[in-house]
Amino acid sequence: MTKKSKDEFYSLVEDITNNQKFNKLNKEIHHGISRFDHSLRVAKWTYLVAKCLHMKKKEETTRAALLHDFYIDKDLEGQRGIKKLGTHPNMALQNSLEYYALNAMQQDIITKHMFPCTLNLPKYKETWLVSVIDKIVSTYEMLRFKASLYIGIYLLFMFEIIRLPR
Length: 166
Ligand SMILES: [Fe+2]
Ligand SMILES: [Fe+2]
Fold this sequence. Notes:
This protein has helices at about 5-15, 20-25, 35-50, 60-65, 80-100, 105-110, 125-160; strands at about 30, 35. By secondary structure, it is mainly α. The chain has one domain (about 5-135): Hypothetical protein af1432 (Orthogonal Bundle). A two-stranded antiparallel sheet has the order 1-2. α3 (about 35-50) crosses α7 (about 125-160) and α5 (about 80-100) packs antiparallel against α6. The radius of gyration is 18 Å and the shape is globular.
C-alpha cells in the first residue's frame, strides 16, 4: 500500500478503528490473529481492489468490509462451530448499526459475507467482492497460522525442549 493509499484508507475508517467496542476485537482470536487485524486486512484489500476497479462505491464498500466481523465471542455466547458461522453476520450488523448508519448495500455486505456457508445470496457486486476477499484472506491467515504452529512444534522437538517419554 502506498503512503497516499494508506492515508486515504485510514481517514476513511478512523472513526471505526477508534471505536471503543470495535477495539475489543483486538482481544478476540480469529484465524490465529486478532479479529481486529483480520477485519483490517479484509478492509485494506477491499479498498485496494475497489480502487483498482474504479468502483464508484469504494468508500462505503471499504467501511462495510471493516465491519463484516464486528462481534465479540461474548455476543454469541453458547454458540460454536457451524452455528456461529451462520449467526455472526447478523450480530456484526446489529453491532454496526448501534454506531453507524448503513445503507442497504453495506448491510448486504455484512449479512451475506459468509455465502455460501449461509445460503444468503449476495445482492450487490460489492458484496461478492468482500465475500471473496474475506475467503482469500481467511485461507491465507489460517494456513500461515497452521504453518507457524507446525514449525514451532517441530522446533520444540528438534531442539529437545520437549522430549517424548522413552
Ligand atoms: Fe465472518
Ligand atoms: Fe472475516
